[in-house]
């Protein structure tokens, strides 16, 4: 059964492949035609070929007129010899085809020259070559597509008048041939011009529709981005601030209220934990909103932690030239990312304050790991707040930010003059381990 299925599949495959090959050949042929039509040399080549055909038809007509006995406009010229008759006929034929080579650059001039030459040939000799008619149809189509459409319509009116006169005044076979050619020129010319004008109008309508849709999409996208940016600002400036204040106040109330029952302290701790979790989720939401709103932000990278402290101290040494030491004691413990981020930011802000208010002072950064807490201590040997009265006020926002960061993760913070001189910053952060994380490369 499987063999039959295989044979059936092999027999059914060739027709499908043949159809696909035919479609591919058709597409390639259409692409080739479009490329040839779009080539700037194509009109010149077409004009030369049509001129040769028109000249050949004109010479054949002159020879037949000189050899025959029929009467016609060419008879008087043909009696002088077929060579002179050919010269007289070939000139309008060439004038009716060669200007087609300028249809890309000057379609109005080319259309006027071709129609005038055909009109002279048809009116004087009752002769309109097939090549001249083809050239006239092409140039009127081009003029209707890319030139003055009113001119394209006006150039066909003389042929209509000539066709009416020829149909009303002549009934001979030769004249009927001229009448047929005049009717063809009067009928095909307006059709070609109208076809070109219709395609031009369709192209303009498609472009306008695409432009309108693109403009509407841009306006809608910009409006949505502006709304996302506004929501992001509201969340960052208002909601995040209030949520962080809830966490700070909950921790402050738990630590500052004496004699609080254990259940109340537990509830306040739960409130702080919930507020911190809400802040974390809000930061993620703000990141998504800022990306969607098109706000240019820094490259996305993980939040810094204790593993980046060495790099932070190296940067502080390079920028200010201070002596900075990292002192680590105790057993390294895996910490919650929020605790590591708080410790990193506290050290970063303390180094910034030391560089700003005690330039050139040496700084010691000490980390002491205990069972339930991480003790952070940053001390500089500068003049201290007593010798620098402006320091507490100037660093007020930095100290407040460090206090809030410590409280946000359930820790404590204090700062002030260090014994023996200098300034001291201390923070006690919870050392709750996070499952599945390994301690980073914290090296003194």
Question: Overview of this structure, please?
Answer:
The chain is of the alpha+beta class and 444 residues long. It folds into three domains: 212 residues, no CATH class; 59 residues; 125 residues, Histidine kinase-like ATPase, C-terminal domain (Heat Shock Protein 90, 2-Layer Sandwich), CATH 3.30.565. Helix content is 69%, strand content 8%. The protein is built from 15 helices and five strands. Strand 2 and strand 3 form a beta hairpin. Helix 9 packs antiparallel against helix 10. The N terminus is likely disordered.
End-to-end separation: 75 Å
Return Rg in Å.
46 Å
Strand order of the biggest β-sheet:
1-2-3-5-4
Element string (H = helix, E = strand): HHHHHHHHHHHEHEEHHHEE
**Main beta sheet:** 5 strands, mixed
Secondary-structure class: alpha+beta
Low-confidence stretches: 1-13, 171-176, 295-300, 388-395, 434-441
Oligomer: single chain
